[in-house]
């Protein structure tokens, strides 16, 4: 028995292989701190020519990604009425596919944020989700973070529109994961847009590019692929002045956080702001 025990410690005794169906049920990947990721991808007013107009959100989608199995467990989606420039440009409609009748049937941003907050509250109740800057018990909560493709959605578009319109923005939207920056560090290459990032990994874009909901779903698909490749998702940007989060000190992440790339090396320059 002592010889067998020694052999196990030295790794000379192989464990019995798991059944094929069990192996398929548990894909390889890194162990994630966040149980869920909420992927957001806004579409906004835009013009072909340069101008000084402030952009307004016209499509507000969000999808809930379960990081344990890669499934989208819930979705939020609504069109938003632009107030400052209510008539969409032809360029905007061509780019996004969003029609004037759709935004006119939508709701103002303030009401949209109220509905979005209620959707988040439902997720808290049904799935015990907690966000990183909320005071809650880590033993009973499932940590959740927001994900965007670049810092534009939450760091620029929503931030400045809420300031211009004096809309109270939910504090939980002040921290997020920039998947573009994370992708660049993890794979050590600069992606050529969301579609290019998917293609580099042998994945196909599903749906219409620049449709907010389709972009959000594809970003979630990309995030899941990165997770199965071994990427540990961490918060990369925070607008909060005070660092540190209540749910766990593990995710008090700053842009200088260390990532491990897909070859098991340890690069790590800081994530650019």
Automatic annotation (TrEMBL):
Pfam families: RNase_T (PF00929). Its cofactor is Mg(2+). Residues 36-232 form the Exonuclease domain. Transmembrane segments: none annotated. The keyword Zinc applies. SMART domains: EXOIII. GO terms for molecular function: 3'-5'-RNA exonuclease activity; nucleic acid binding; zinc ion binding. The keyword Transcription does not apply. Keywords: Exonuclease, Hydrolase, Magnesium, Metal-binding, Nuclease, Zinc, Zinc-finger. Belongs to the ERI2 family. This is ERI1 exoribonuclease 2.
């Amino acid at each position: 028995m002592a010889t067998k025990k020694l052999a196990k410690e030295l790794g000379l005794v192989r464990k019995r292989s798991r059944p094929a169906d069990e192996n398929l049920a548990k894909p390889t990947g890194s162990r994630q701190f966040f149980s869920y990721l909420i992927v957001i991808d806004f579409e906004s007013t835009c013009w072909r020519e340069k101008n000084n107009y402030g952009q307004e959100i016209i499509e507000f989608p969000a999808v809930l990604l379960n990081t344990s199995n890669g499934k989208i467990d819930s979705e939020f989606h609504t069109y938003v009425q632009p107030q400052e420039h209510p008539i969409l440009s032809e360029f905007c409609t061509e780019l996004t596919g969003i029609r004037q009748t759709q935004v006119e049937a939508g709701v103002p941003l303030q009401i949209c944020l109220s509905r979005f907050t209620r959707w988040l509250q439902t997720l808290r109740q049904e799935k015990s989700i907690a966000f990183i800057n909320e005071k809650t018990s880590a033993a009973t909560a499932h940590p959740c973070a927001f994900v965007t493709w670049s810092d534009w959605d939450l760091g620029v578009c929503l931030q400045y529109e809420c300031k211009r319109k004096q809309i109270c923005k939910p504090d939980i939207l002040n921290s997020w994961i920039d998947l573009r920056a994370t992708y660049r560090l993890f794979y050590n290459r600069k992606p050529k847009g969301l579609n290019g990032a998917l293609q580099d990994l042998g994945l196909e874009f599903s749906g219409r590019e620049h449709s907010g909901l389709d972009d959000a779903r594809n970003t979630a698909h990309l995030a899941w692929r990165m997770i199965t490749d071994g990427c540990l998702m961490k918060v990369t940007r925070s607008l909060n002045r005070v660092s540190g989060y209540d749910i766990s000190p593990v995710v008090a992440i700053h842009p200088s956080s260390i990532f491990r790339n897909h070859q098991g090396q340890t690069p790590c320059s800081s994530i650019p702001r």
